[in-house]
Amino acid sequence: MTDPVKEPSKLGKTQRQHLIAKLIGSQVVANQLALVDLLATEGVIATQATVSRDLEDMGAIKVRMPGSESAYAIPALPKEQRAPEDHLRRVFGDWVVEVAHSDNLVIIRTPPGSAHVVASALDRSGLIGVLGTVAGDDTILIVVASDVGGESIATQLSDLAGL
Amino acid sequence: MTDPVKEPSKLGKTQRQHLIAKLIGSQVVANQLALVDLLATEGVIATQATVSRDLEDMGAIKVRMPGSESAYAIPALPKEQRAPEDHLRRVFGDWVVEVAHSDNLVIIRTPPGSAHVVASALDRSGLIGVLGTVAGDDTILIVVASDVGGESIATQLSDLAGL
DNA sequence: CGAATGCTTGCATAGTAATGCAACGAGCCC
DNA sequence: GGGCTCGTTGCATTACTATGCAAGCATTCG
């Protein structure tokens, strides 16, 4: 077609997910219907089904607050960069300072500000047993599937990092 | 009553929640019905409704894995110790080394092995805006409600810690 | 004691999230 | 171009989770 007309309420999947991440990051979103409404406010039309699938793609977690509303959160940054194995190993070698584990958690330390880079690479690695990652400034927390075990993951990551 | 008969399938709420935490911590629990079955295996009878309420009490989070089953996780240790404000302030003053924040996260650093103590105190503080905490060995990650903001929480915590 | 109060639970149901299926559109190959 | 394949989406439905209500128990109070 020679007619790339801009439809104001039609965005690509990726852009919509970025918007979702932004919305979730800037206010409490109690449920998926609320998210549908918020998207509509931004001019993006989507159904609950689509939002559900988006959230799955993004690895969203749902947090229940003891006395109040629940809320969604996005553990790791959705990046669409490609990272070949080599790059992953290099990222780890360069930026992973320390790997520690306890129970079903693994903590990775990086230089200040680098955590999200490493977390992003980790997310795209598809490592079995990694339920989710949360990146701070210089610390990454990894929630590990219990049938895999934090130690196992920690060992693999240490190896990747050359520690 | 002078008849303290031991009912094998009747436990107190607290004990059941501890068992739930243990189960969730030792295997992947996809949903609440699965948890009901697991509890039954352990000789504890409870309905989905009760499990739902327990999970809320425990501040459980539900993690969705991109290509696989979802799983529950318990962010912080359920402790029933009491901690008066004074104690909270003392805990922070003694064990909080650093407070950092980024977006909707706050990271607290403690001496090695002390994270869970501080996290526990923090959980019992009932601080507004704290969605959940996750304690590693010497690092605590706090998920903050976005309408409160990581900076706000970080400031309060720094103050508590005397930093 | 018996009544009143508070806490916990199950049942039934309302509320929310996940998914099978079909439809649509883009890119590709023949 | 016509037909394929792949990816994405909405609809309708199922699956899962949360909760109002009332019952059951234990404790406290009168």
From TrEMBL, chains A, B:
Keyword terms: Cytoplasm, DNA-binding, Transcription, Transcription regulation
- Which SUPFAM superfamilies does the entry link to? C-terminal domain of arginine repressor, Winged helix' DNA-binding domain
Localization, UniProt: Cytoplasm
Domain Arginine repressor DNA-binding, first and last residues per copy = 12-76
Pfam families, per database record:
Arg_repressor, Arg_repressor_C
Tell me where in this chain the Arginine repressor C-terminal domain is found.
Answer: 93-158
Question: Where is it found, in Gene Ontology cellular component terms?
Answer: cytoplasm
Please name the GO terms that the record assigns under molecular function: arginine binding; DNA binding; DNA-binding transcription factor activity
Record family assignment: Belongs to the ArgR family.
Protein name stated in the entry = Unannotated protein
To which species is this protein native? Answer: freshwater metagenome
